[in-house]
Amino acid sequence: MPNNQMDIAIGTSLRELRENHGLNAKELAKNAGISAAMISRIENGQVSPSISTLSALSEALDVPMVSFFRDTASAHVDFTHVKDGQGIHSTRIIENHSHKFINVASHMRRDFGFEAHIVSMEKQDASAPTYIGYGVVFMHVQSGEAIFNYGQNKIYLKKGDSLTLDSELSHGVAEVLTSKFTFLAIKAERR
Fold first, then answer.
1. Residue 63, pLDDT score
2. Domains in the chain, CATH or no CATH each
3. Full strand arrangement of the beta sheet holding 171-176
4. Secondary structure (DSSP) of 19-79
5. pLDDT value of position 66
6. Which of the four, 11, 23, 63, 98, has the lowest number of CB atoms within 10 Å?
7. What torsion do the CA atoms of 51, 53, 58, 61 make, to the nearest 10 degrees?
8. pLDDT by residue (tens digit) across 27-70?
9. pTM score, two decimals?
């Protein structure tokens, strides 16, 4: 990629990141310790920013520096298409508890990871596992009812309910209330 095209791509990325953070150029400039005129020149592809400038912008926006280069990557990208009923079928066994899940999506980049599973749990005497991790988890209940623990909170979930949580706090299904409880679980985390 020629330098001018790279400068334009970096500028476009910077503008999008700045706007996504709700900042104008003057506010970003103040937070990064550089001039608003420099922000304008970078966003318009008129200058090649130094590593130290990109580092200051990265810190001010709280994004990895690689975010500025997202439109400069090679012409290849990965994607996965999972057809209905397919995916990787697995069973998780922890002591006397077991439940089934289907891995329907997984995408890992240097800066970001994403997984999606359809989890099916049957009512049983054994306790389901609890989890602690990084990033965020989104759940959408497809069928059944259950009590879900999130830290000290007990949350009643039924078909159609959604739940989003920070996965750094202990969480997991405490009790399946119907014969079967099925939900979509999506986990995303910065790497």
1. 87
2. 3-69 (1.10.260.40), 88-190 (2.60.120.10)
3. 153-158, 145-150, 171-176
4. HHTT--HHHHHHHHTS-HHHHHHHHTT-S---HHHHHHHHHHHTS-GGGGGTTSS-S----
5. 82
6. 98
7. -170
8. 999 999 999 999 999 999 899 999 999 999 989 998 888 888 87
9. 0.59
